[in-house]
User: Fold this.
Amino acid sequence: MNERRALAVAGASAALLTAAGFLLLAAGSPAASSTLSRDSRGWLAARRYLEVMGTKVTLLDQDLEVPRGGGVLVLAFPWQEAGGGDVPAAIDRWLQRGGRVVFAYSGEAWDGSESAAAEALDLGWEQPRGRPPLHPIRWREYAREEWVLSPDDAAAGVRPIRIGAPARLPRMPPGARVLAHGPNGRPVAFRFPRWRGEVVVLPADSFSNARLGGAGNADLLETLRRELGDRWLFDERHHGLRAPVTAAQAVPQRIFVLYLLQVAFAYALVVVAVVHRFGPATSEPAVTTGSATTFLTGLGGLHARLRHQREAARLLVARARELDPRLELPEPADAAAEDLLTLARLVGAAQSGKGKTA
Assistant:
């Protein structure tokens, strides 16, 4: 494979890998529990409902430690990015200022960011359904199981709530008020006071796009909207939303862009160096082919240029006698290239049988 073909193959491979990367990014997992997501696990419908009902909705695109006014801070899990900054300290400051926190847990088997937020609220965990089964069919049934939650008697007007069965539940602390019960009377949604504020704990699937069409799920959202207040702040920073880049933040990014341009320039120089040969183009000499006569003629010409005729003649006769001592050969003398060729013909004739002694 020549160099041009190798470069073409490398370029085609790079193009295929780039296309595959774009396809993988486009087919990545959706932002579950994000108010910007239209996926079945997204919260876009819940945000639109609150806005239609007159609730002031704010999407947070910065870390939680940034000071803001009061209201309802919604932390809906799972997060698509790890918690930036000191999330537990930010939650404590929010509650100490009298704010409310909605902790919408995902119910997945384990999540580091979710566990850190639950620990900041002094919430432990339990596995109501035990460990997931290893058998493929039973695991599929385990993953598809649904629960119908029964609202507390005090939650007037709230109908049964349907969610996907969680793998783990936060334990309800002492003094909390139950909002909805799961199977066997286990509390699944509850609220309790903390510091100067209040915490509401519920499954994130309660307000997902796929579930909010249910009567009980919509009833629960409307009840919380009336009781918690008309200002809701959704943490979208950990779902991938970013604030606009400031002038101070743009400097490191420009340096990174310049670095990428430098790498691309160096790569282009390497490609040019490989493709373009240094110096004039030369063709490879043709391979010499032909009979023994051509070879011997060339050999005689070489000896003529180097003045080796006499040594070559003696060596030719000596090698022929070593192979067959019966050969009658003349003694070599000083000769030109033509005489060396004549001597080679005599040796050939003697070896063919015409000059052998008995």
